[in-house]
Specification:
Helix content: 10-25%
Order of helices and strands: HEEEEEEEEEEE
Largest sheet: 4 strands, mixed
Distance between the termini: 107 Å
Shape: rod-shaped
Strand order of the largest sheet: 2-9-8-5
Strand content: 35-45%
Length: 139
């Protein structure tokens, strides 16, 4: 008779112990960094930024990206594209907790190599006191 009572009682105890286990707590974001923290690009070029959410085992690793001046440079999923000369700041923000980090971006004008220079006149004869304008065309 003892065994008939003992086994069901043991089963109930095991069930109670199993159901009393705590639910795992979510791991919250405690910070964010961006690499690199400064960047220099030429108009038309692009570069990738990397965001690191802390701790590395945080449940929500999602981030959003934004450019302070979208006429100078834009950003999409960490890829920065330089549009025109100037300065801007690219900011990454964690969805969990709203932590931010930024990268200072400087965009320099694209230089164009000179292939030739031509003058409006190849010869010029002047008498003392006369003047004439010659125009140079740079290609």
């Amino acid at each position: 008779m003892k065994n008939k009572i003992l086994w069901p009682l043991l089963g109930v105890c095991l069930l109670l112990v199993a159901s009393c286990q705590k639910e795992p707590q979510p791991v919250k974001v405690t910070g964010i960094t961006v690499n690199p923290t400064s960047l220099s690009l030429t108009e038309g070029d692009s570069a990738d930024l990397t965001a690191t959410v802390s701790p590395s085992n945080a449940d929500n690793q999602s981030v959003t990206w934004d450019s302070n001046d979208k006429s100078v440079a834009t950003v999409s999923n960490g890829k920065v594209t330089a549009l025109k000369a100037g300065s801007t700041s690219i900011t990454v923000k964690s969805v969990d907790g709203g932590f931010t980090a930024s990268c200072a971006v400087t965009v320099v004008a694209k230089t164009v190599d000179v292939s030739s220079v031509t003058l409006s006149k190849s010869e010029l004869t002047l008498t003392e006191g006369e003047s004439e304008t010659i125009t140079a065309t740079v290609k």
